[in-house]
Specification:
Length: 287
């Protein structure tokens, strides 16, 4: 497992740091409809002491019709500043399941210039199962802070970037959705979207990288990426359904030291709903 990785913090270390003046704990729990769970409601009922809630749907670009698109630097700074977080804080992000939405929020903070952002290994469900401290009742109201955003636009890919890459094949595109959705044999969970994948992209379902709410060990990750032709010198764009699970691939790439990566924020929700965007299916592609 990856609890000793620089992007992760284990439960013992976090518990020992609770109450530290520079520590900011962020509950990033978000669920797919199939989970039948409500992240905000669960946070309001119980949380790691001192945690604040990062709502990926609320802290987003409200001018877009696409779900939870990245907020502008000014919007992001205002929202997380209201949560009491500055870019110089030691930020620890968790989600209840261990590793689903926390990487998306980790990515948000990092590309906006936060200096220290880690993910809690195993998440909140494991934290509670181990009888670690839990805060209940009304969440505390944080003291506002100033977050000075230093946005890295090169880490976010657009629809135009994806179109251009179909022609150039300069960037390796990795799709975190299930293979059935990638192949076009399984329906999309969002109505009105085409089925299939971006031509030239490769399938790397996020579940294959995760075990027991954590990333698999570095050697296993390296083998999984090698199987989809990862080259250390070639840039990578990660994509998924709506930009959440793509961040798990991004996190794994960073753990391997591959820093030439971007995330396609619109992901399949944008591509699959764009009339003239070409769509490939598995039977039209080479394995």
């Amino acid at each position: 497992m990856t609890s000793d990785n620089r992007f992760f913090i284990n439960a013992d270390e976090l518990q020992a740091r609770i109450g530290a003046p520079d520590l900011r704990i962020v509950d990033a729990s978000w669920y797919l409809p199939a989970h039948g769970r409500d992240g905000r409601a669960e946070f309001e009922a119980a949380r790691i002491p001192g945690a604040v809630f990062f709502d990926i749907d609320a802290i987003s670009d409200k001018t877009s019709d696409l779900p939870h698109m990245l907020a502008s630097p000014a919007q992001f700074a205002a929202a997380v500043g209201a949560l009491g977080i500055s870019e110089t804080d030691d930020i620890v992000v968790y989600d209840a399941l261990g590793l689903l939405s926390a990487p998306r929020v980790w990515w948000n903070f990092r590309i906006m210039g936060a200096r220290s952002v880690r993910i809690l290994s195993g998440g909140f469900d494991r934290w509670r199962a181990a009888d670690r401290p839990v805060e209940t009742g009304a969440p505390h109201i944080p003291q506002p802070a100033v977050f000075n955003a230093a946005f890295q636009p090169g880490r976010v890919a657009s629809l135009d970037d994806m179109r251009a890459n179909i022609k150039s094949s300069r960037v390796l595109v990795l799709d975190a959705r299930s293979f059935g959705r990638f192949a076009g044999t399984d329906p999309e969970p969002r109505a009105g979207l085409a089925s299939g994948h971006i031509p030239g992209s490769k399938s790397l379902p996020w579940e294959t990288l995760v075990a027991d709410g954590e990333l698999k060990d570095i050697d296993t990750l390296r083998e999984l990426f090698r199987a989809v032709s990862l080259d250390e010198s070639r840039p990578v764009i990660t994509t998924c359904g709506s930009g959440v699970s793509a961040a798990i691939l991004t996190l794994a790439l960073e753990c391997l030291g591959h820093e030439q990566n971007a995330l396609y924020d619109g992901s399949w929700t944008e591509w699959g709903s764009t009339e003239d965007a070409p769509v490939a299916r598995w039977e039209e592609s080479s394995p």
